Amino acid sequence: MASTIIQSADTEAAFSEWKAIRYEIRTGGDETDSADHPLWNRMRDAEDRIMQSEETGPRVAEIRLWVGIITFGLLYESDHEAARREDADWLLQYAKSGEQQNEAILYAIKALRGENVA
Predict the structure, then answer these.
(1) Alpha-carbon distances, residue 74 vs 46, 47, 69 (angstroms)
(2) For residues 112 and 61, is the Cβ–Cβ distance under 8 A?
(3) What is the pLDDT of residues 56-94, one digit of tens each?
């Protein structure tokens, strides 16, 4: 059986870029999702690299979960700030959305990190 080397460097780089662009869009006051907006195009490109990466492992799975919760599960700026820090504990304690799917994603992130959920 061949051993598999788990790598995440390219996905990490794309995620850092994705978070920086998303922050720039949110703080720049232009959150319009325009098909020809250069920032949105760059963010979508970074997201495609994250989701279509052939890299594997817990960190790659965690990054993909963060992209999902940031994109679809957070409402308030304080929640987005905690997500940029990848602070699952803060979100579990203080996130205002109270959505069960968000909790499930955050618990999955903690499990991938090997952290207790209590």
Answers:
(1) 20, 17, 7
(2) yes
(3) 999 999 999 999 999 888 888 899 999 999 999 999 988
pLDDT in tens, 14-50: 999 999 999 888 887 666 666 667 888 899 999 999 9
Q: Give the three-state DSSP class for 6.
A: coil
Long-range contacts of 75-81 (CB under 8 A, 24+ apart): 77/26, 80/26
| CA–CA gap between residue 103 and residue 95 (Å, rounded) | 10
Tell me, rounded to whole angstroms, the distance of Cα 25 from its chain centroid: 15
What span, in angstroms and rounded, lies between the C-alpha atoms of 46 and 117?
30
* Beta-carbon-side half-sphere exposure of residue 95 (alpha carbons within 13 Å): 26
